[in-house]
């Protein structure tokens, strides 16, 4: 089994006037021209490569067969997924519904989370860290 792309690090970036984010150069290489952006846990957005996104879809579909509540969660998640085109300058649009979900206004904390990139509001990131004893 081959491993997909791996992402690490923390980067502070800003949205431009059009709601686009420049992906950090160290993270952008694995994406090519497309990434899949979706609401994720604890109020962040997750950005997956095509390969890792297929794995995420597989996991979510397996839970959708369990019951109507799980199916509706998968429906809601699927409806919110955005196939983001990444331009030559590494800019990626973030649609308004996803900016609202993650409370992204101007500043964006971009973090590597091993199999995905996460986009955080700095305030949400800080609150998350305060809730967990021993986090840095």
Mean pLDDT: 93
Strand residue content: 25-35%
Please state the structural category.
alpha+beta
| Main sheet specs | 6 strands, antiparallel
What oligomeric arrangement do these chains adopt?
single chain
Order of helices and strands: EEHEEHHEEHEEH
Distance from first to last alpha carbon: 33 Å
Could you describe the 3D structure shown?
The protein is an alpha+beta fold and 136 residues long. The protein has a domain at 10-49 and 81-131: Chemotaxis protein chec. The protein is built from 5 helices and 8 strands; from the N terminus they run ββαββααββαββα. The strands form 2 sheets. It has a 6-stranded antiparallel beta sheet with strand order 1-7-8-4-3-5. A two-stranded antiparallel ribbon has the order 2-6. The protein is globular. The mean pLDDT is 93.
Kindly summarize this structure in a few lines.
With 136 residues, this protein is an alpha+beta fold.
How are the SSEs ordered, and which strands pair?
Blueprint: E1 10-14, E2 20-22, H1 25-28, E3 34-39, E4 45-48, H2 50-64, H3 68-80, E5 82-85, E6 91-93, H4 96-101, E7 107-112, E8 117-120, H5 122-131
Give the tags.
Chemotaxis protein chec; 6-stranded antiparallel sheet; 8 strands
């Amino acid at each position: 089994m081959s491993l997909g792309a791996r992402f690490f690090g923390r980067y502070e970036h800003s949205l431009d006037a059009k709601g686009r984010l420049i992906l950090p150069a160290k993270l952008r290489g694995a994406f090519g021209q497309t990434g899949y952006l979706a609401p994720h846990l604890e109020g962040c957005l997750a950005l997956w490569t095509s390969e890792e996104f297929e794995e995420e879809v597989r996991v979510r579909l397996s839970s959708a067969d369990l019951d109507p509540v799980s199916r509706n969660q998968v429906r809601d998640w699927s409806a919110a997924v955005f196939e983001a085109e990444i331009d030559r300058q590494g800019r990626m649009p973030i649609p308004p519904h996803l900016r609202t979900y993650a409370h992204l206004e101007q500043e964006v904390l971009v973090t590597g989370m091993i199999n995905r990139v996460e986009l955080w509001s700095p305030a949400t990131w800080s609150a998350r860290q305060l809730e967990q004893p021993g986090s840095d």
